[in-house]
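Hey, quick one: can you model this chain's 3D structure?
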Amino acid sequence: MVENINRSIPKLYEAFQECFDIGAAVNPRTIFQAGDLIAHHYNSLTAENEMKFERIHPAEDTYTFEAADRIVGFAREHGKKLRGHTLVWHNQASDWLFQGSDGGSVSRDTLLARLKSHINTVVKRYQGDVYAWDVVNEAIADEGPELLRPSKWLDIAGPSFIAKAFEFAHEADPKALLFYNESHPLKRDKIYTLLQSLRSQGVPVHGVGLQAHWNLYDPGLDDIRAAIERYASLGLVLHLTEMDMSVFRFEDRRVDLTAPTEEMMELQARRYEAVFSLLREYRNFIDSVTFWGAADDYTWLDDFPVRGRKNWPLLFDEKCQPKPSFWRVVSE
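Sure thing. Here's the predicted structure for all 332 residues.
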């Protein structure tokens, strides 16, 4: 547990209390190592991996709730809001889900029945603790004219798996806010098409999550603004669900840095300042901004996309101390 938290500095979430919640993705390791930081600066939490299908439901008759329960317990103890992530995704889905007894693919009816059982079990377990769920994650095609990405969900159940997932989640917890969660602002037209279709069918989708895995240069502020306005026009709640600011472009394959340069930290501070200035403009539409991690000591960007490379994408450094980015954000 980090002991040297400076409690005299502004609490991050309190700096935005008139705008939106400020959250962090957490796991059992980070709540043990940086629990004081998390409790002090964030008022919303998301389980980084512990509520994903393969982690919580590795076999048809087996649920492993222990890690997720620890996160729920931490949120209860510290009075934090909790977002659930994620019920349907083409990645981190257990293989048994799509397999029949003969080793081939299951039928559509069997797959949807398994999905309904999973959602009912998980959502009901955390009813009253989780106020919002990322129901479907990254179903949009990355490239080309197709709307939906290739996946076993699509192959077996067809496009209706998305609507069914939202319906099952709403049945399990009618009070939970239900989100479609996606990655890049440049997919905004396809995302808009999907959400508009779901809304026209009466599917209980309440919001859209913008993942916000960005870097010092991309995407442009105009692209972010356009995406926000496009989704807000549908009357949906907006959450930024997975924010971080990589110091490297995705195509940058350097591995030689052992510490961020002063130039990187200044660019990151300017970038965060500009992004949060933009987000404040849309505070009537954005209810929550969640960082995908609490501090630079642990981030999913370490080793991704370059194995062996450290990244420094968050507002607190490897010793959980505020970076220049923190001060630019809270001083607006």
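One thing worth noting: DSSP finds eleven helices and nine strands in the chain.
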